[in-house]
Amino acid sequence: MSHAPRLPRPEALSNLQGGSDEEVVSAAVGELVGRQAEIGIDIVNDGEVPKQGSFLSHMRTRISGCEARPELAEQHRDAGVTGGPAAR
Questions:
Q1: Looking at the 3D structure of the chain, how many domains does it have?
Q2: Residue 37 in domain
């Protein structure tokens, strides 16, 4: 048995504002991994607990060249695409 990576963040982490306390995050990951093993999940993971914010905010810290483009926020995702279903 396994599961998708994202798990609800433990309550101890909800008190962290902005930065992260490595000891608190490490303890939370240990708690989640232990709980997964207890209930029989054979492929355990960190539940994405160390990641803060959204996928995009996480990726901006991992990949260079990622930047916010607020001017595109209201634009339809297929804007400017030619020849596809949105162009018909």
A1: 1
A2: yes
Cα four-point dihedral sign 12, 25, 60, 48: negative
Question: In terms of residue numbers, what domain contains 43?
Answer: 21-65
pLDDT in tens, the chain (88 residues): 777 777 887 777 776 655 568 888 888 899 989 999 999 999 999 888 887 777 777 777 778 887 777 887 777 777 666 765 554 5
Cβ contact 84:78 at 8 Å: yes
Neighbours of 47 (CB within 10 A): 22
- Residue 2 covered by a domain: no
Within a domain: residue 70? no
